[in-house]
Structures are given as structure tokens and as C-alpha cells.
Design brief:
The complex is a heterodimer of chains A (about 475) and B (about 500). Helices cover about 75% and strands about 0% of the residues of chain A. With about 475 residues, chain A is mainly alpha-helical. Chain A is globular. In chain B, helix 3 runs antiparallel to helix 19. The chains are: A mainly alpha (about 475), B mainly alpha (about 500). Chain B: Pfam families: Proton_antipo_M.
């Protein structure tokens, strides 16, 4: 039995199943709901299977159709890809469960095929071994994401979706230009080959600049975050959740992958610039979140702030710092998805998301608010939560490398986060009469939010597996403090 | 999993699980909720007793979970841990009975008792924490679960107080986090050890260690209400009386003071801290807080506010005791950890009784209240005399050992601080007693509720009477077998070479 399981090419499955699922959902809209749930479960199983393989092998390269690079297409997986895949699979399952009750009939017909397509694109992106395939998956991801944002159908949503489309295309264009330049000067697209061949030269420099600009635009790093809050806030709740939790992480993943493989050698001042922008994002995003009067905008600005943390690892550069940033990324995905789902629940029942008038609705939704509060613990970086572990590791890395100022940013970001999280939580503890609005929330919508929030909290206690994952194939260097 | 690992976890679970279940209970399941609360509290006491028994028979209890490479979450028994865990679990039972009576008929009781249980879980974790990161985890958890209790009434004042509490404590938590990480990068461990783990570090790191000490004390001083970080405490008195009891006696300020004890004795080691010249500034700060708190208490007309400033002052006795770097003074500080808890909880519960039964919130409304509520006021009187330090009550022994310790440490000025503080204690407590016992009662109380021929509900009356008797017992039986003094002597002997 074990032998058969070892032979299974798990690495292909997280890409194939969502694509098949997407087509089936399109063909049989009546069965879309159960098909998607099934697909999400299958993807989670496949990712687990892949993790089981990687535990023994460390890293895995799989030539599709047996052709192999540089002619064919290679898939590559190590601990870093596994972490991202697992994040996508867990959040994906949560979103599938949540959405099964969220959408009305006609919206659902559009949602399910698009969502599974996005899911497949995302998994393919995390497994791509060459920079052109990364482009293809990135473009596919961007287009499905735009379509999903537009799904809300309101004028606001359409405007944000259009802006998002333009930003997304612009970002991909920058990226593609960079890829073309690299291909021209190095003659390969495979990341592993590039890592050996890239020599500092003006062309490579330009390429690095173009690729980074494109990816940073898509990751919404300050000051290129302008498109994110409206797009994330005007989308339907499950879409907001997947945008903030997963989609922005995809471009960050590409940047990180390239950075670790061959950007790193290209200069240290660039790292400091990224750190600086990250710090600005942490503070600016936090301040803006504090100023918002609408819940979904508040959460969206919180994403801007939290994404900033991830960039603090660039100037630190140690294995410890990467671990901290990736831990943060993982727990942020869980917590932020839970938060957007909670906001969706509030809007679903109360019909609005004005923070000042939350009191009456929250009285009816104890589970939802629990989910929001638990997710908030991780967002604030208080123990026990994944956010705390990430913060601890980053703080330790910043003190060890003598760059304590990044640590101060971490602490300040925590204050701001506490400010905006409690701005919302404070409305639970009023004596407002529960709203008399009719309607009941489906249990799945409350429990899926709570489930993800709980994962974010438990990540603060059960740290062994996530950390061990990052050692597989040593994508970020071995050793604890490397 | 054997008993040595299971017991610390069970002690946590005995309040954590009832808390979780209580959250899910509908509002009207009063009996189930009450049973769960009491069962949890009693079970915890039994378990703590079991741990005590085990320790006396040479067993060692420890539960460990790897958190980060080189850093574990550790819950461990030890004399110091037992001191605090016994205090908090004992007083929790009393507070639970009181809270059940106090919150009868009020809304959101499931939420309240849920967080109440989590609060005690966090306190137990603080007590049993075997290293700084575990301590930090539970310390922050305590912040998170006391906030809902402080804002429980949902009024604007309560929410304002809650906001302030958060601003102070989250800042304190951040400082604690920063200093813990910093210490870890220097020492490579955070494990609490007798006489500390830092004295072996290179001398060139000493200035850094001094800065970290300052950060740690600032982080812990927020909860321990050292000046100038005490601002949240008097505001938080808007919370319901059982919560005040929890804040002032069982959990929050105690967690701060307890943390300072851990840092001075088991992170730095008292002798090392002394050689770095860190203890005298800490003692001075504590002395200043003692005087300042008492002075402010003098001018409050609101009873709970006066008691709150009194806490600011009294908690610093603990800090003063441990900062004097003398075994006897440490003894005084440690027993005051217990004495202050027992006495202050009595006072707050009595204040709560006056508010609940007669609607009295101010001292100027207390004319002759002793005749209407003799039991309550008798308990209050004992607590107040304990605070003043009148023999043979518990508080006398705190001050006695603090004074002896000050002489032992060659810090004669502390005697003056103690004397001035006692005079001030008397000056703000005796007028209350005079008003309550000797003035003529008014014709009508502000908002009287009738309890038949009893002065108030028994659930409200019994807890303060019990803790008042405890105050007496701790003083009268100071030399009985298995007493507090023996136990603290044991702790002290481990802290000094």
C-alpha cells in the first residue's frame, strides 16, 4: 500500500483536480456546490500526500510528460511550495464551505467555475519551476480574480474590478518584459538553471527591476497598494477572503522564490529599499485601517499593513527571518480569511458594515464575533497565535543581526493592529438590543470562519510541522539562525 | 503521559474547559452554569492540593511542549509557583461564589463567567510558567480575557476604562516581548532558574542587561501598577465588584508583581541584580509608589476608587520587599503577596455589598451603615485594620518583616516609608470606619434592596466573611505547622546563596 502511495505523482494532482472540477461545475451547475466541496477536500488530501512524499525526499522535480527542462515543463516542489499549497488548500476548503451558503443561485453559477479555476492556477503557480510558466499562471490567476471581484455587480465593484484589471495587467506586463530580458541574456527560463548562470549585468539588473516592480504592484506593497482596499472591500465576502488571504501571496511567493534563487546576489541596497517600503506599509496601512468607518475597508487596509511585515525579512535575510515572515504569511492567510468571512456574516445579516452601528448585529452573532476576535489575536501578534510566533522569529532575527529598527516597526504595527481590532471588538460589549431583523445565518458560514480563526490561534502552540516544512529541501537555508 | 505531566495541564483544564462550556450555555441555564463554576473551582483546589502533597513527597511536576527550536512551553511546579497558584485558586472559589450572587438577574452571564474562567486559567498559567515565554503567553492571555470583564457593563465609562486598560497593558506586553526576545538572543535560554541564568554572561553585556531589566520592569510594572504606569487601575474600578476583586487581588496586579519576583529572582538572580545596581532604583520606585498611592487614596470620596489607589500603594510593598535584596525583606514581600490578596478581596467584596444592597458608592453616603449591615462592615473593618498593619492581623506581619528586612539590608530609610505609609493607611481607612460605625444612619439609603431579615444575600455575605476570617487566621496562626511563613522561607532559601 505504502509503495503504491509513493508512486502516485501527488505533485500534479493539486493542479489537475481543480481544473477538472472547474469544467464540471461549468457543465453541471446544479451539482456545482458538492463538486467544489469535493474538489477542495481532494486538493487538501493531495497536498497532504505531497507533503508525505517531500518529508522523505526533501524536494521533488517532476517533468510533465517526461520531457524535462529546458524543452518540456517541469514542476518543482519543496517545503516552501508545500507551505503555500497547504495554506491555499486550507483556506480553499474554508471558502468552499462558506460559499456553499453565501451565494444566491445565479451568482453561484458564475462563482464556482471561476473559483476552482483560480484554485488550480494558484496551485500551478506554487509548483512552477520556470519563470515563464509563472507568468502564465500569474496571468490566469489575475484574470480569474478580476472576474470574481466583478461578481458583486454593484457600480462600485465594477469600477474597482476595472482598476484591478488594469493594475494586474500592468504588473504582468512588467513581469513579462523582465522575463524576456532574462531569457535574452541568459538563455534559459528554468529557475534552477538561472540560479547557476545569472551574472550581474545591466540587462539582468533591468530585468530584476522590472520583475520586482510588476510583482510588488500585484502584492500591493506600499505605495502601490492603492488598488487593494477598494477591490478587496467591494468584492463578495468569500472573494475578499481569497483575495486577501491567497491571491496577494502568490506574487509575493514568486518574488521570494526568485530572490532566494538568484536576486539575492544582485545587491543589498535593494533589500533595504524593500524593508523600508514594508515598514511604511505596516505603519500607513495600520493608520488607515484605524481611520476607516466601514468594516471591510478596515480589514482590507489591515492586509496592506500585514503584507508590510513580510518585506521586513528582506533586509534581515537570515533563515530565521524568512521563517518568521513565512509563518506570518501562513497565519495571516487563515486569520484574514476568517475576518473577511466574519465581516461577510455581519453584512449578510445586518445589511451593512458601518462600524459605528455594529452593536445590534453583533449581539446576534456570537460565533462570528468569536471568530473575528480569535483572528484578531493573530493579526495583533499576541500569544498564543501564529502571528505571535512569526513576530517572535522576526524580532529575534532583527536583534540578532543588529538591525533592531525593524523590530520597532514590528511592535508599532502590533499597536496599530490592536487599535483597529479592538475598534471592532468594542462594539460587542455594548448593551444594544439585538437587531430585530429577520433572517438566520447558515451555520456553515459561522463555523467556517471560526475554523480558520482557530487554525490561526493553534498555529501559536503547535509549531512543529509548519517549521519542519520550511526545512524540507531547505529553500530558505538550513540551520536555525543561519 | 503520567501524573507528573498531566497534573499541571489538569490544573489549567479545570477552569479552561468549564469556561468553554459556559460560553455555549444559554443564558437561562443558571443551575448548570453555577454547578460548572463551582465544580471547576473546587476541582482546581483539589488538584492544587494534590500537587502540594506531591511536592512535599519529593515529586516534580512538569509539562513541556516544544514551541520553537530551543524554546519550550513549560508548566512546572515549584515553591514560588505553588504560592501564587494556591492563592489564586483559593480566592477564585470565593470570588466565584460572590460573582454568582452578585450577577444574579443581570444580562450576559454566560459571557461573563466564560471569560471569568479563562481569566483564572491565564492566572494559573502565569503562576506555573516555567520560563519567560510561557509566562509571556499567559500574561497576554490575561490581558485579553480581563478586557471583556472590565467592559462588561457596556456603558461609555466602562468602555473608556477598557480602552485605557488595553492601551496600558498592550504597551506593557510589547515591552515584555521585546525584552524576552532580547534576553533570549543573549542568553540562549529563558528557563526560570534559582538565582537566575544571566550572571554567567560576559561583563561587556552588563549595560545591555541593565537596559533589558528596565524594559522588563516597565512591561510588568503596568500590571503591577507601579507609578507612572498605574493610570488604568483606578479607572478600571467601574467594573462589577467581582471583577475588581479579580483585578486587585487574584489575577492582574498579582501577575505583574509575581512577574517582577520571577525576573528579579529567577531570571537575573537577586545577587546579580544587586551587583548590577538594579535593585535600589526598583526599591525607590516601589517606595515612591507606596507613598503616592496612599496620598491619592486619601482624597477619594468614591469607595472603590479609594480602594483602588490603596491597591496601587499596597502592591508595591511586594516589589519593595523583593527589591531590598535581603532574605527577610523578601519574606515580607512574598507573604504580602498573599496577605494583600486576602485583605483587598475582602474590602472590594464589602464595597460591592454596599453598592448592591443599599446603592452606596461614596464614603459620604456611608453614615451608620454598620448598623444596617453589621457583618459586612465587620469584615470590612478586619480587612482595613489588616491593611493598616495592626497586630495580630495578617498585614502586620508583612510590614514587620519588611521593616526587619530593610534594617538587615542597611536601608534604614525604608522604615520611614513604612511608617508614613501606615499613617496614611490609617488616615484613609479610619474615617471610613468611623463614618460607618458611629455616625447616625440616614432615613433612606440611596437604593435599598430588601433581603428579608438578612442584611443581604448569603452568597454576597459569606465570601467576605470567610476572607476576613482568613485575614485573622493568617495573623493568629502565623506559627502553626504548614504555615505560610515556612513556605516562603523555603522559597527565599532557594533565592539566596
Amino acid at each position: 500500500m505504502a509503495l503504491i502511495l509513493e508512486q502516485v505523482p501527488w505533485i500534479v494532482m493539486p493542479i489537475i483536480f481543480p481544473l477538472i472540477g472547474s469544467m464540471l461545475c461549468f457543465l453541471f451547475p446544479a451539482k456545482a456546490k458538492s463538486l467544489s466541496l469535493l474538489t477542495s477536500l481532494v486538493v487538501l488530501t493531495c497536498v497532504t500526500g505531497l507533503g508525505w512524499q517531500l518529508k522523505a525526499l526533501g524536494s521533488l522535480r517532476y517533468p510533465i510528460g517526461g520531457w524535462g527542462a529546458p524543452l518540456g515543463i517541469d514542476l518543482y516542489a519543496d517545503g516552501l511550495s508545500l507551505l503555500m499549497l497547504l495554506m491555499a488548500a486550507l483556506v480553499g476548503l474554508g471558502i468552499s464551505i462558506y460559499s456553499s451558503s453565501y451565494f444566491s443561485r445565479d451568482k453561484a453559477n458564475h462563482f464556482w467555475p471561476l473559483w476552482l479555476l483560480l484554485c488550480g492556477a494558484l496551485n500551478a503557480l506554487f509548483l512552477s519551476a520556470d519563470i515563464f510558466n509563472l507568468y502564465v499562471t500569474l496571468e490566469l490567476l489575475g484574470l480569474t480574480a478580476v472576474a470574481l471581484v466583478a461578481l458583486a455587480g454593484s457600480a462600485n465593484a465594477l469600477i474597482s474590478a476595472m482598476r484591478y484589471l488594469l493594475v494586474s495587467l500592468l504588473g504582468s506586463l512588467f513581469y513579462l518584459l523582465g522575463v524576456a530580458l532574462i531569457y535574452h541574456s541568459v538563455g534559459s527560463l528554468d529557475i534552477a538553471i538561472l540560479a547557476q548562470r545569472v551574472e550581474p549585468s545591466p540587462a539582468v539588473w533591468t530585468a530584476v527591476g522590472l520583475i520586482s516592480t510588476g510583482l510588488l504592484l500585484k502584492t500591493a506593497l506600499f505605495p502601490m497598494h492603492f488598488w487593494l482596499p477598494p477591490a478587496h472591500a467591494s468584492a463578495p465576502a468569500p472573494v475578499s477572503a481569497l483575495m486577501s488571504a491567497l491571491v496577494v501571496k502568490a506574487s509575493f511567493y514568486i518574488l521570494l522564490r526568485m530572490w532566494l534563487e538568484f536576486f539575492q546576489t544582485q545587491g543589498g541596497s535593494f533589500a533595504n529599499l524593500l524593508g523600508l517600503l514594508g515598514a511604511a506599509a505596516v505603519l500607513w496601512g495600520g493608520i488607515q485601517a484605524l481611520r476607516q468607518t466601514r468594516l471591510k475597508l478596515l480589514i482590507a487596509y489591515s492586509t496592506v499593513s500585514q503584507l508590510g511585515y513580510l518585506f521586513l525579512a528582506f533586509p534581515l535575510g537570515t533563515s530565521l527571518a524568512w521563517k518568521g515572515a513565512l509563518y506570518m504569511l501562513f497565519s495571516h492567510a487563515m486569520a484574514k480569511a476568517a475576518m473577511f468571512m466574519a465581516a461577510g456574516n455581519i453584512q449578510f445579516l445586518g445589511g451593512h458594515d458601518r462600524i459605528a452601528e455594529l452593536g445590534p448585529i453583533t449581539q446576534r452573532l456570537p460565533l462570528t464575533l468569536t471568530a473575528f476576535a480569535l483572528a484578531g489575536i493573530s493579526i495583533m501578534g499576541l500569544p498564543p497565535s501564529g502571528g505571535f510566533i512569526g513576530k517572535w522569529l522576526l524580532l529575534q532575527a532583527s536583534i540578532e543581526s543588529g538591525q533592531w529598527w525593524w523590530g520597532i516597526i514590528l511592535l508599532l504595527g502590533g499597536f496599530l493592529a490592536a487599535g483597529y481590532v479592538f475598534k471592532v471588538i468594542g462594539h460587542v460589549f455594548t448593551h444594544d438590543e439585538p437587531t430585530s431583523q429577520a433572517g438566520k445565518l447558515p451555520a456553515t458560514m459561522e463555523w467556517s470562519a471560526l475554523g480558520l480563526a482557530l487554525i490561526a490561534v493553534l498555529l501559536g502552540i503547535f509549531t512543529y510541522w509548519p517549521l519542519a516544512m520550511l526545512e524540507m529541501g531547505s529553500p530558505i537555508g538550513t540551520g536555525y539562525s543561519g | 503521559m503520567n501524573w507528573n505531566t498531566a497534573l499541571p495541564l489538569l490544573i489549567l483544564a479545570s477552569s479552561f474547559l468549564p469556561g468553554l462550556i459556559i460560553f455555549c450555555l444559554p443564558e437561562d441555564r443558571v443551575v448548570t452554569r453555577t454547578m460548572l463554576n463551582l465544580a471547576g473551582a473546587l476541582f482546581k483546589i483539589v488538584l492544587v492540593g494534590g500537587m502540594f502533597w506531591g511536592m512535599l513527597h519529593g515529586y516534580h511536576f512538569e509539562a513541556r511542549l516544544a514551541l520553537l527550536p530551543g524554546l519550550d512551553l513549560v508548566l512546572r511546579s515549584g515553591p514560588l509557583a505553588m504560592l501564587f497558584v494556591t492563592l489564586s485558586s483559593g480566592l477564585w472559589l470565593v470570588t466565584t461564589v460572590y460573582a454568582i450572587g452578585y450577577l444574579e438577574e443581570s444580562p450576559h452571564r454566560s459571557r461573563f463567567f466564560g471569560f471569568f474562567s479563562l481569566c483564572v486559567t491565564a492566572t494559573t498559567g502565569v503562576a506555573l510558567a516555567g520560563n519567560l515565554i510561557t509566562f509571556l503567553l499567559f500574561y497576554e492571555l490575561l490581558t485579553l480575557c480581563t478586557y471583556p470583564l472590565i467592559v462588561h457593563r457596556g456603558t461609555d465609562i466602562a468602555r473608556q476604562a477598557g480602552r485605557n486598560y488595553l492601551i496600558y497593558t498592550i504597551m506593557g506586553g510589547a515591552l515584555l516581548l521585546l525584552s524576552s526576545v532580547w534576553l533570549y538572543t543573549l542568553a540562549g535560554t529563558l528557563e526560570f532558574t534559582d538565582r537566575g541564568f544571566l550572571s554567567g554572561l560576559d561583563a561587556s553585556l552588563h549595560p545591555t542587561l541593565m537596559i533589558i531589566f528596565g524594559l522588563l520592569i516597565a512591561g510588568l510594572g503596568v500590571k503591577a501598577a507601579l507609578i507612572p504606569l498605574h493610570g488604568w487601575l483606578p479607572q478600571a474600578m467601574v467594573a462589577p465588584a467581582p471583577v475588581s476583586a479579580l483585578l486587585h487581588a487574584v489575577a492582574v496586579v498579582k501577575a505583574g508583581a509575581f512577574g517582577i519576583i520571577r525576573v528579579v529572582y529567577e531570571v537575573y538572580g537577586i545577587e546579580f541584580a544587586n551587583s548590577l545596581g538594579l535593585t535600589l532604583p526598583l526599591a525607590t520606585l516601589a517606595a515612591a509608589t507606596i507613598i503616592y498611592g496612599s496620598l491619592r487614596a486619601l482624597f477619594q470620596d468614591e469607595l472603590k476608587r479609594r480602594l483602588a489607589f490603596s491597591t496601587v500603594s499596597q502592591v508595591s510593598y511586594i516589589v519593595l520587599g523583593i527589591a531590598l535584596a535581603s532574605p527577610i525583606a523578601t519574606l515580607g514581600g512574598l507573604i504580602h503577596l498573599v496577605h494583600q490578596g486576602v485583605q483587598k478581596i475582602t474590602l472590594f467584596m464589602c464595597a460591592g455589598n454596599l453598592a448592591e444592597t443599599l446603592g452606596i458608592h461614596k464614603i459620604s453616603e456611608m453614615n451608620g451603615v454598620g448598623r444596617r449591615m453589621p457583618w459586612t462592615m465587620a469584615a470590612f473593618t478586619i480587612g482595613a485594620f489588616g491593611m493598616i498593619g495592626a497586630p495580630p492581623l495578617a498585614g502586620f506581619f508583612s510590614k514587620w518583616y519588611l521593616g526587619l528586612g530593610a534594617l538587615d539590608a542597611g536601608q534604614g530609610w525604608v522604615i520611614y516609608v513604612l511608617a508614613v505609609s501606615s499613617v496614611l493607611n490609617a488616615a484613609y481607612f479610619l474615617p471610613i470606619l468611623y463614618t460607618a460605625w458611629f455616625k447616625t444612619p440616614p432615613d433612606n439609603w440611596p437604593a435599598e434592596r430588601s433581603f428579608g431579615n438578612k442584611e443581604t444575600a448569603w452568597t454576597l455575605l459569606l465570601p467576605p466573611v470567610v476572607t476576613a476570617l482568613l485575614t485573622l487566621a493568617l495573623g493568629l496562626l502565623a506559627s502553626a505547622p504548614f504555615n505560610l511563613l515556612e513556605w516562603t522561607r523555603l522559597i527565599v532559601s532557594r533565592g539566596f546563596a
